[in-house]
Amino acid sequence: MSGRDSQGPADDALRAVKGMNDILPPDSAKWNYVEKRARATFENHGYREVRTPVVEYTPLFVRSIGDTTDVVEKEMYTFTDRDQRSLTLRPEGTAGAARAFLEHSVHVKEPVTRWYYSGPMFRHERAQKGRYRQFYQMGVEAYGVAEPTVDAEQIAMLMTLFGDLGITGLETAVNNVGGPADRPRFRDALVAYFTPRAGELCPDCQRRLTTNPLRILDCKVEGCKALVAGAPSILDFLSDGSRAHFDGLRRALDALDVRYVVEPRLVRGLDYYTGTVYEVRATGGELGSQNTLCGGGRYDAMVGELGGPATPAVGFAFGMERLVMTLPGDAEGFEIPADVFFAAHGEPARLYCLKRAAELRARGFRAELEHRAASMKAQLKRADRLKARVVVVVGESELSSQQVVLRDMKAGEQRSIPADDLVPELKKLLR
Ligand code: AMP
Predict the structure, then answer these.
(1) What digits encode the pLDDT tens for the residues 381-423?
(2) DSSP 68-118
(3) pLDDT tens, 346-356?
(4) Ligand 1: centre distance to CA 267 (Å)
(5) Which residues have C-beta atoms less than 6 Å from ligand 1?
(6) Which residues contact 355 (CB under 8 A, 6 or more apart)?
(7) CA 54 and chain centroid, separation
(8) 142 forms bridges with which residues in the sheet?
(9) Which pTM value belongs to this model?
């Protein structure tokens, strides 16, 4: 067998898997900025980080996300490992978090748990702008609180974060998809509405009419969307309890000055949602149809259905790629340049600079040095490219006189200073 047959096209070794991206500097600076701000915001609200594996046993996702959702039916990266177990690369973060919550009996240790997570998710979707096969999500989950004020607090937390990031032109849509008690009547109403119109539905939705009619509401095919616009509204089928919860959510959002619209046909693509669901979308910008930045809601039944105690839960996840694309500003502007760049002439000077750079870093400065034997002109050019704030020049004469040359790159001025004064002089310049 030729190498080509056994390993696929020869150049596959040289390109990333379709729909999976490398994130290189300077773009990674923008990612880091978003992650840092998000972590700070989540922690400020009492959320602590959880890290779960990237792979789980397949039944976890089938049972929690739902076996008739697009994610489970068409999009999972499922494979058999060497122990003949079916594993799946996680398509989202909620199921793994709930599994960890249950497996470690966290509910026994604390009445309320607030977690956040960050990491790659995998779905075999049609790759396009804003839609990838490996994408990153950051999300939060709160367990143990049934009250709608926590749902509202999460939505307001998102608004705070997006506002801090300078993202404007957002639209927040909320709905209540009812609980297990409300669903059968709504399901019947949907079937009664769509059955006479089944001929106009896409083949997937014709199937969904018997397997999972609620999923028709989430179909992206234009013909189905037109029919969905006239479909019954879940809000007319809510029990008193669900209705009171939804009213409570709205009062809390109003109290927090969060602007939102009620969208009675918003259901989200995952089956585990009960009660509150919401989406935050970018109304302008380059995302086009992939403009949903964040999705979230309640999943009060999941922990119980996985075999744990009944535990109310609510959370959201946003896509990092879409958020970074919406974030104003060039990626370069997010990079943090060096405070100090050492330009050395000759090996003794380089060894001296190597040591001084380490000393400065230990004191919290960002310091770089040129390791290659290059001309002073080339070194200064490189310092300029790196946007270093100050260059410290050391050659043989500086070494023997125990001086260094300090060059202020912004002012374009330089002067000799005693080597011992480097730290206080730098502090003055960088203040
Ligand atoms: P979901 O987990 O489907 O509720 O999606 C939550 C958020 O994750 C979406 O609003 C997107 O920002 C992001 N997301 C979901 N799927 C993808 C994907 N295939 N590519 C990029 N981002 C995604």
Answers:
(1) 999 999 999 999 999 999 999 999 999 999 999 999 999 999 9
(2) TSHIIIII-EEEE-TTS-EEEE-S-SHHHHHHHHHHTTHHHH-S-EEEEEE
(3) 999 999 999 99
(4) 14
(5) 92, 123, 125, 131-132, 135, 137, 268-269, 292-295, 317-319, 321-322
(6) none
(7) 15
(8) 114, 314
(9) 0.92
